[in-house]
Design goal:
- The chain is about 30% helix and about 30% strand.
- The protein is an alpha+beta fold and about 375 residues long.
- Helix 1 (about 10-20) packs across helix 10 (about 280-290) and helix 3 runs antiparallel to helix 4 (about 90-95).
- The longest helix has 16 residues, at about 220-235.
């Protein structure tokens, strides 16, 4: 089985590492010659808008998948006419426009933050009157890890936000006073089989994921069942194939959708060691029509991103104890402020021991 991956970041890298034991072969396509997935598979460098390059890339492949959702939909549609492509261009399109995405969720009675499209200054003023402050102004398209958005706490924030973001389609979202941020990962195969990972609690700083944590057993809670129901409705409506991530705001017993990602996701990296089958392996099983693997979690599991700089590997590994297993994943990326350079997964039978290690300030281990 020859599999092509659009995008050459760490997600593509981890997909390949999960697929090699199954005998799959990979190559990736990315605009950057320094894409880190190229460390573990052949890399084709080209523009996602270059149909000739994409067609040449797809020659001889059995299927193509994504690790990066900002591929032009028209390129994905053209590619899908030549080779099976999962998830579908429809799912890709839905995730690329925040107004369409929220409208889609609301059409299925899945709650979202109140919102209004903003295509002019008049739209902006009307949306502010209707939604009030605080609110969040975002670009409709692109933007990740906190980019392309501006939190409006007071009237003084309005002009700076408009000056920074105007000129492209925007969305104003009412601020959700949430208790915590959580996400669920689900997988649906070409045969319609589905599996769900346990909800994880996520902590962000400046829009960048810092850590994720799941406490076993977590699959029997009402929130888990609610998240699974929302994920199942979404996958069935989109005729989805592959792993899907949905991020929520938890408000008491209610889950409010923030956004979805039609791919494997940072908040599921813990599953490599923390679940019977990782999100990466299940994405490959789903897209190739193999039986999906168990998502069972047997330990308390936590994951922390390594951001900006890499701590001393020797000191980092020394944080493991008899109570806490520790696994380090480095992506081979050049250190830059705020950049995701790797992640650390921690497993423990004891919640207290896990908490102690998770609260360690890794940046001090230089």
């Amino acid at each position: 089985m020859n599999i092509g991956i659009l995008g050459g970041g760490q997600l593509g890298r981890m997909l390949a590492l999960a697929g090699y034991p199954l005998g799959f072969r990979f190559r990736c396509f990315d605009p950057s010659p320094e894409a880190v997935a190229g460390h573990v598979m052949p890399l084709t460098v080209g523009s996602f808008e270059d149909l000739d390059a994409l067609t040449a890339f797809a020659t001889g492949l059995d299927l193509v998948t994504f690790e990066f959702e900002n591929v032009p939909v028209w390129s994905a549609e053209c590619l899908a006419q030549k080779v099976p492509l999962y998830p579908s261009p429809m799912a890709l399109a839905m995730s690329q426009d925040r107004v369409e995405e929220k409208t889609f969720f609301q059409s299925m009675n899945i709650p979202t933050a109140p919102f209004a499209p903003v295509n002019s200054r008049t739209d902006f003023e009307t949306a502010l009157q209707n939604l009030g402050l605080p609110a969040v102004l975002k670009t409709c398209r692109l933007g990740y890890d906190g980019k392309g958005q501006y939190v409006l706490q007071t009237v003084a924030d309005i002009e700076p936000a408009w000056s920074k973001l105007q000129g492209v389609p925007l969305i104003l979202e009412g601020f959700v006073a949430f208790e915590r941020e959580v996400s669920i990962l689900a997988a649906r195969s070409t045969r319609g089989e589905t599996v769900f990972y346990p909800l994880v609690e996520n902590k962000h700083t400046g829009g960048i994921l810092q850590s994720s944590r799941v406490t076993a057993p977590a699959s029997t809670s009402e929130l888990q069942r609610l998240a699974q129901n929302y994920a199942l409705k979404t996958m069935e409506a989109l005729e989805y194939t592959g792993v899907l991530a949905i991020e929520f705001f938890q408000c008491g017993k209610e889950l409010i959708v923030n956004e979805m990602a039609p791919r494997v996701h940072n908040s599921g990296h813990w599953s490599i060691e923390g679940a019977c089958t990782s999100q990466f392996a299940n994405h490959l099983r789903a897209t190739t029509g193999l039986p999906l693997g168990s998502t069972k979690v047997t330990n308390h599991v936590g994951m922390k991103n390594i951001l900006g700089q890499i701590p001393s590997l020797e000191k980092l590994l020394a944080q493991a104890t008899d109570q806490v297993q520790l696994y380090v994943h480095l992506y081979g990326k050049k250190p830059l402020p705020g950049r995701k350079l790797g992640h650390i997964t921690m497993l423990s039978k004891d919640a207290g021991s896990l908490e102690s290690v998770m609260t360690t300030d890794w940046t001090e281990l230089s």
